[in-house]
Amino acid sequence: MDEKYHRSLYSQLDDLDYAIARRLQDNARLPFTQIAKELGVTEKTVRIRVQQMQDEGVLSLVGIVNPVKAGITVQSLIQVAVEAGKLDDVVAKLQDIYEVRLVVLTTGDYQLMIQVLNRDYEELSQFLMNKLNKIEGITKVNVINELKVLKSRFRFIR
């Protein structure tokens, strides 16, 4: 391997893991045989390393759907304030709601931030009135509609 790898932020990966992950983040369909040839190792070594990284939760090889192309025209970030002692219950209910894509624990006046994907504003209204507002323990919400995505990246390794 002649390539120098900069891994200061990724100390849990050795040089080979890092090199494999770097290539797969650019193209998850890259054949293991090609990666092996570029790195001077066997295809079996690449396959084993990828499986280990997947098993450890370091690497996921997934297809990313463009929400706009899939008919999702309204994306919202919603700050959620939760009554003391109810956080676990609220999170469990949010995890079961299809429209909720992301649930994040935050600091400040709102304990949670969720991302919600809807086809249109009518569907968002129905979600707010019939699902979110009926969850016991939520005391306040702040809905932030995403007008335009200016940056969205899936590359984390340089």
From TrEMBL:
UniProtKB keywords: DNA-binding, Transcription, Transcription regulation
Full protein name: Transcriptional regulator
Superkingdom, taxonomy of origin: Bacteria
Signal sequence range: none
An MF annotation (GO) of this entry: sequence-specific DNA binding
Annotated InterPro entries: AsnC-type_HTH_dom, Dimeric_a/b-barrel, HTH-Siroheme_Decarb, Tscrpt_reg_AsnC-like, Tscrpt_reg_AsnC/Lrp_C, Tscrpt_reg_HTH_AsnC-type_CS, WH-like_DNA-bd_sf, WH_DNA-bd_sf
Source organism (scientific name): Brevibacillus aydinogluensis
Pfam families: AsnC_trans_reg, HTH_AsnC-type
Residues covered by the HTH asnC-type domain: 13-73
